[in-house]
Write a structure and sequence with these properties.
The structure holds two protein chains of two kinds. By secondary structure, chain A is mainly β. Chain A is 0% helix and 53% strand. Chain A has strands at 4-5, 10-14, 19-25, 32-38, 45-51, 56-59, 62-67, 72-77, 86-93, 103-105, 109-114. In chain A, strands 2, 4, 5, 9, 10 and 11 form a six-stranded mixed β-sheet that branches. In chain A, strands 1-3-8-7-6 form a five-stranded antiparallel β-sheet, with no helix packed on it. Chain A is globular. In chain B, the strands form two sheets. In chain B, strands 2, 4, 5, 6, 9, 10 and 11 form a seven-stranded mixed β-sheet that branches. In chain B, strand 4 (31-37) and strand 5 form a beta hairpin. Classes of the chains: A mainly beta, B mainly beta.
Chain lengths: 115, 115
């Protein structure tokens, strides 16, 4: 059962515009959410995270929004740059479970930023 | 700071053969994870170690997969015998163990193809 879902497998955006990547989850016990970025032939690298006690976290061009009532989070990239082209994974953690730090990943969204 | 090292980077075997993967985590990271990422899906946790003890192996197919982390540093993941559906990228990650959520750092992965 997929507890973290990314329903858009791909997204294309013009350079300089906003990229919005979406993620939905089903487990209400998740209380920490992360976005990872993955280039081909490399492992995922951490991008930004948000705790369930917040609804927004910003780091430079990257902002993550969390809507707990809708069990939805989104990643905004503004302005988008060609170097942002990668696969983005949404992940969630329930630190209260045994094996705290376990991450449940979505299926990923491939972002292409067109110069 | 050196990142998580994995070898080999690529491996091709025939079904029913055996294969082993090696991971060297970031120095000082007590927690080590093995993930399986099948094409088109997000990484799925197979096993989590804290030092040399297993924290969670609920998703590890124990009839064919085994993992160990001797001396709480390096780890090996073995598949014996391999099946076609084991074709995937096997990712190793490590993290500190400080309480709460600890960021996971991923290695480049080993791409396994089972023919």
């Amino acid at each position: 059962d997929q507890q973290v879902k990314q329903n858009s497998p791909s997204l294309s955006v013009q350079e300089g515009r906003i990229s919005i990547l979406n993620c939905d989850y089903t487990n209400s016990m998740f209380d920490y959410f992360l976005w990872y970025k993955k280039y081909p032939a490399e492992g995922p690298t951490f991008l930004i995270s948000i705790s369930s006690i917040k609804d927004k976290n910003e780091d430079g061009r990257f902002t993550v929004f969390l809507n707990k009532s809708a069990k939805h989070l989104s990643l905004h990239i503004v302005p988008s740059q060609p170097g942002d082209s990668a696969v983005y994974f949404c992940a969630a953690s329930n630190p209260l479970e045994a094996g705290a730090n376990n991450l449940f990943f979505g299926t990923g969204t491939r972002l292409t930023v067109i110069p | 700071e050196a990142g998580v090292a994995q070898s080999p980077r690529y491996k091709i075997i025939e079904k029913r053969q055996s294969v082993a993967f090696w991971c060297n985590p970031i120095s000082g990271h007590a927690t080590l994870y093995w993930y399986q990422q099948i094409l088109g899906q997000g990484p799925k946790l197979l096993i989590q170690f804290q030092n040399n003890g297993v924290v969670d192996d609920s998703q590890l197919p124990k009839d064919r997969f085994s993992a160990e982390r001797l001396k709480g540093v390096d780890s090996t993941l073995k598949i014996q015998p391999a099946k076609l559906e084991d074709s995937a990228v096997y990712l190793c990650a490590s993290s500190l163990d400080r309480g709460g959520y600890n960021e996971q750092f991923f290695g480049p992965g080993t791409r396994l193809t089972v023919l």
